[in-house]
Amino acid sequence: MALKTLVKVGEISNLSDARYCAGMGVEMLGFNLNKQSDTFISPEQFKEITDWVAGVKFVGEFTDTNVETIKQFISVYAVDMVQITDTNSEVIFDLDLPVIMHIKSSDLEELELLMSQVGNQVDYYLLENFDDPDELKELADNYPILLGCNIDVDNVHLWIEETAIKGVALKGSLEEKPGFKDYDQLADILEALETDD
After folding, report:
1. What is the rounded CA–CA span in Å between residue 6 and residue 44?
2. In what helix (H) or strand (E) does residue 7 lie, and over which residues does it extend?
């Protein structure tokens, strides 16, 4: 199975999502490592899920966490990448893993300033506040962007074809009960991105 663009699915909290996404050709699975979150994954849950999937990169997702805390987590969780927020951008210089920087701002000047400051220390920038592909074109021409907003089955091809984004970022969801999932919009988007290869 192959997809037309790179896809990251974040907040994976169950084996059903992980296996489905890996089978569909998703490249990166994100796990929420913020203990206060409803979708926090314990080390035991992380191992149970990741032992069952192959061919994907595992991303540890952090918000507003200092570098020492992140290092403690990645010594326990076997992640391939780290996702941080722009509010703790200084930690990227102390990590030995590829970094996704999650940015909530939609101010182009602010974004370009931040991106120029951290430069090639960041592997992908995950943006969540854009409505118009035209606003994103220049930024996506110059930086590796993952788009995490305003994506649905009807417009996902528009974003890919009209901008140079590297991929899209979607989210998993909680199981209604173990083994029972409704994939609805996630499945629709992934199926729309399938290639004939």
Report:
1. 28
2. strand 6-10
Question: Per-residue pLDDT for 123 more than 90?
Answer: yes
Three-class DSSP category at 15: helix
CB 169 within 8 A of CB 6: no
Closest CA to 126 of 167, 89, 161: 167
Place of tokens 């609805």: 184
Name, of 48-52, 135-139, 148-152, the range with top average pLDDT. 48-52
Pairing of strands 57-61, 145-147: unpaired
In the numeric block, the tokens 């035209």 are attached to: 134
Query: Phi and psi for 84 in degrees, rounded to 5?
Result: -120, 170
Question: How many angstroms separate the CA atoms of 63 and 96, rounded?
Answer: 18
Tens-digit pLDDT profile for residues 7-55: 999 999 999 899 999 999 999 999 999 988 888 999 999 999 999 999 9
Range 94-118 average pLDDT? 88
Q: Distance of alpha carbon 38 from its chain centroid, rounded?
A: 17
pTM of the full predicted structure? 0.92
